[in-house]
Amino acid sequence: MLSHVALVVLAAWLALATTVWAQSDAPDAPPSDQPADQAPARPILQASDYAPLVCDPATHGFRYVEVRGSGFDTWASQRLVGNLLDGNGTAQMQWGSVWVSPRGGLTLELNLCADPFRSRPALAPGTYTVAVGDASGVAIAATSIDVAPPPEPPAEGDLPVPAAPATAAVNPTPAPITFVLPSVASAPAPTRLTLVAPATTPTPAPRTGPGSRQQPYPLGAPGTLGDAWQMQVTGVTPDAWSGIHSSIPSSIAPASDQRDYMVRVRAIYQGQGTGVFSAMRLALASGIQTTYDQLHNACGIVPDMVPPNLVTPGGEVSGNVCFTVRAADIDALALFDNQSVDTDRLFFALK
After folding, report:
1. What is the pLDDT of residue 111?
2. Among the three residues 90, 119, 147, which one is the final residue of a domain in this structure?
3. Residue, of 10 and 294, whose pLDDT is higher
4. Burial class (CB in 10 A: 0-12, 13-18, 19+), 65
5. 8 A C-beta contact, residue 333 and residue 261
6. Together in a domain, 229 and 128
7. Using 50, 70 and 90 to split pLDDT, how confident is the model at 13?
8. What is the CATH number of the domain that holds 124?
9. Which residue segment(s) compose the domain that 132 sits in?
10. What is the mean pLDDT of the chain?
């Protein structure tokens, strides 16, 4: 009997010793007097509109939802793959080369309308998944977007019935009012406050020198963008409506105080692997605050648009990108690469 008790005590002591050794010598355990490091920010995708309306088939042009990613620092300066899947898991759209900026950010432009370049109809109402992954197909981050049908006008029977006016009581009997004095407690002694100024985050200095807002590249001069595309402006048409209309009769004229401002660009890929140059990355700046981009100010379908072709090193794309702008801004416009970080933006003169 004594030997049996000794064996039980010995087994309990060994288990306790093993537990203490695992807690003290485990390589991933933080020191007892220091907090564990916070986990790095995980990659996330955020859409500019999570419930956009379906594109009107009678509308000529594109309508985009912008999907921006952050926290992709592990894949900085690399290229990932994006996919748009419907509710059945069928691929509806693909981005073969999604560039991740040095700060871990990326941008996808999701066209809700029909795409004549890819022979794709407009997206039908339903739930879609936008996913970004590596070349092997493993998803890194995903988000869902619900494309909503157009709202239906209310039926005649659905109109609300006006409520009947409330009837005031005649000579209502006043209810007695009882006053209750609150108990008064002595106020606690004030606690001294210690103010600690938050740590300041350094703000990147604005770009200076050639390619900056103050010193844009001259018209026709090439500039190398942040993802190894060398781009140059090869032509400018400040009032392109007549030319657009002669090629595409269904196009809609801008308002009387606006102009269709068309820029022709040429881009050569000088990076590694493959790359895609999209006109969605281009925008116009006028003055200090006015900006025109392809998400909000595109002219619609124009002749010889920049094709979203996948190219290898040395590959070239060229075409037109058009913005509807105020006529008063025409003489003060500059083209720039519309990156999320100001220091990554490169400006090109248009005169």
Report:
1. 87
2. 147
3. 294
4. buried
5. yes
6. no
7. very low
8. 2.60.40.1930
9. 44-147
10. 79
